[in-house]
Amino acid sequence: MKLFRQACVSCFMPLLAAIPITEVSAQETVNSKAKNKVASALDTIIVTSERSEKSIWESPMPVAVVNSDEIKKQNGDSIIETLRDIPGVEISDNSLAGRKQIMIRGEEPSRVLILVDGQELTYHRSGHGSSAGVLIDMESVERIEVVKGPNSVLYGSQAIGGVVNFITRKGSEDQKKFNAHFKSIYNGATDGFTEQGSIYGTVDNFDYRLSGTYSDQGDRKTKEGRLKNTDFDNNSASAWLGYRLDQHKFGMSLEHYKVDTSTYYNLASGSPEIKEFSLKIPKLARDKIGLFYDYDVDSNLIDKIHVDGYYQRLERQFRNNILIVPIATMKIGTNTHTDDTQNSVGLTSQINWKLHPDINLITGAQYQRDDVKQTSLTQNTINTPIPSRDYVERSLQNNKWQQSTIAVFAQNDWSLTKDINWNIGIRQYWIESELKKGHSTQTKTPVSGSQTSTTTVDSPRTDHHHNFVVATGMTYQGIENTLLRASFAQGYVYPTLAHLYGITAAHSQVLYGNPDLKPEKSNNYEIGLRFNNNRWLIDSAIYYSDAKNYITDQYCNGSAICNGAVGSTNQYYINADKARTYGVELSIEYLDWDFVPYLTANYIRRQLHTSSYQTFDSGSPALSSTFGVKNSTIWDAINTDFDSNLFIRAATDTAKRSGDDTYHYSGWATLNFSLTASFGRERQYQIGIDLNNLLNKNYTTARETIPAAKFNTVISASLLF
């Protein structure tokens, strides 16, 4: 295997070096193509940062975009892999290989808002700090927009860390009536396959798309061998139908996604008392219908009117089995089966005003309601040193919760001079959370003696909250080829229904909800610089965040919130933690060579304050980066393009403190190479190869509990017609 890796490096390094050594016209095309890509990227029109169209260059916020070309070339097992090299973005797996999640600037996935075509993907049944993940058809995605930092003003709760908007393909850009795309990927790290395909087009005033993806991945292969329970499979399908009538545009989207995954757990490195452990999510499914309406008014007062609404359903099946042997003559077996559904409806209306040529005002309102139903059965089988005292405990819960949010927002963008632009946004929330039904029955059946049963009925209750947040930013372009920016924003995350009312049993722990929780809040300050002279491209930011009321947990110790429960396995949610975060993000490219050297990096320091300690051991590596050289070559004589990338991903060592325990993570660096060949008269055929972890490093990233794959090859082939 070592010789094979060396052979791969030896073969592909000369190939990479040889690409530009063709003829002068080809070399000139390389430079022009690279520069045109950058210019195109800077001119890319985004909608997420300000709910209106603005180029990346002009945005006062830290923005990153993954375009359709990059998405077509990505060969990862999740669409999230396209975000891995964005400064400040981290990928978390929460021990579930099939449900990767997004972190931004050290903030947990629960503080990162996920949108699909601007519509929220909420989730009230996730564990502490985690989210549902990105439950979207990979083939349907045309572009991903990432806005780092809090954007609660425009998009509501959950956006302390940032917003990630997955924008789907709507039709044919070149007005073709019929297009089709098919792609197949083989992943050597799992011996898995992914197949995806779509048909789409524009017929007169109609545009349409049908797409789907199926992925079946085996157990991950690492340097230590295959990891059990890291296999997963998912399937998805989606559709779009749009119609334009003069100045009116109507649209409807349909989405389906389902994943089956398990939790990786290493018994050898876990607690010696745990003899058996399994956690499976045999079903996590999302179904949605979305409706969209846009009216290009173009009057003297109003520019555009936008309305969209959706219905969304999430279903989850959770299965957890654990066997604990505290002493040789005692066994405690716990089996938990939980089924829950979340039905969500949302409605957004927005008006873009034209009050003055230098003023762009946006006003809008949002309504959202989430209804959660949960049924949970937990069975504890206790075998004691005295068999006659053995018993079985069963706990059955049935719950219904609801949370409704009404919000109004406004943002004004004002060109003060030709070089200075200022914007300010405000948002007012009214949130109502309701415990509609809470019913639990505990039954104890001893080996000898009579059965006992206790029933608890939670009294219905309603909790109200309102909040006001503000954000503002300014840009200055009075220096040649340079944009300076500064911003302030308030972040806001309201507790989920599980945080408020749930009782969650998993990993031999029980977590109780707390209806008295306060929302998590933050104040965030940022300055940044963008520079582009067609030789150097630089995008940088310095950021600082001061957050409070972060939700954590503490032992019950007989608290009434926990119904008097005691012991180290019973905890409840509280507002206790604070976090101060500061850092520097940098993205830089030099465009004047055939080989384009580039660097993306994030330096972050995050101090956590709890009721018992303060620590910088937050789990975020102080420095993480990707650096390498990339090359684009056009060979018109054979109708072929080559895009290659040789790069190193790296992160420093770090530690994470949780209570009295501190977990250490070693630093790591991997060498990787990717090559994509696009050929045909319209470059309609594409073959890709990724050589990952070329030096076969054994490592685990700080945010992923599953060890990374050993050296592996990913091969893809696609067809577009």
From TrEMBL:
- Residue ranges annotated as compositionally biased, kind Polar residues, are 440-459
Say which species the protein is native to: Orbus hercynius
Q: Which residue numbers delimit the TonB-dependent receptor-like beta-barrel domain?
A: 228-694
Any transmembrane segments, and where? none
Domain of life per record: Bacteria
Q: What is its membrane topology?
A: Multi-pass membrane protein
**Domain TonB-dependent receptor plug per the UniProt entry, residue ranges:** 58-163
- Please give the name of this protein: Hemoglobin/transferrin/lactoferrin receptor protein
- UniProt-listed PANTHER family: HEMOGLOBIN AND HEMOGLOBIN-HAPTOGLOBIN-BINDING PROTEIN 1-RELATED (PTHR30069:SF29), TONB-DEPENDENT OUTER MEMBRANE RECEPTOR (PTHR30069)
For region Disordered, the annotated ranges are 440-463
Q: Which GO terms describe its cellular component?
A: cell outer membrane
Q: Could you tell me which InterPro entries the record lists for this protein?
A: Beta-barrel_TonB (IPR000531), Beta-barrel_TonB_sf (IPR036942), Plug_dom (IPR012910), Plug_dom_sf (IPR037066), TonB-dep_rcpt-like (IPR039426)
Which Gene3D superfamilies does its entry note? TonB-dependent receptor, beta-barrel domain, TonB-dependent receptor, plug domain
The family database entries (Pfam families) matched by this protein are listed as: Plug, TonB_dep_Rec_b-barrel
Q: What is its main location?
A: membrane
Keyword annotations: Cell outer membrane, Membrane, Receptor, Signal, TonB box, Transmembrane, Transmembrane beta strand, Transport
Family assignment from sequence similarity: Belongs to the TonB-dependent receptor family. Hemoglobin/haptoglobin binding protein subfamily.
One GO BP annotation of this record: siderophore transmembrane transport
| Annotated compartments | Cell outer membrane
**A molecular-function term among this protein's GO annotations:** siderophore uptake transmembrane transporter activity
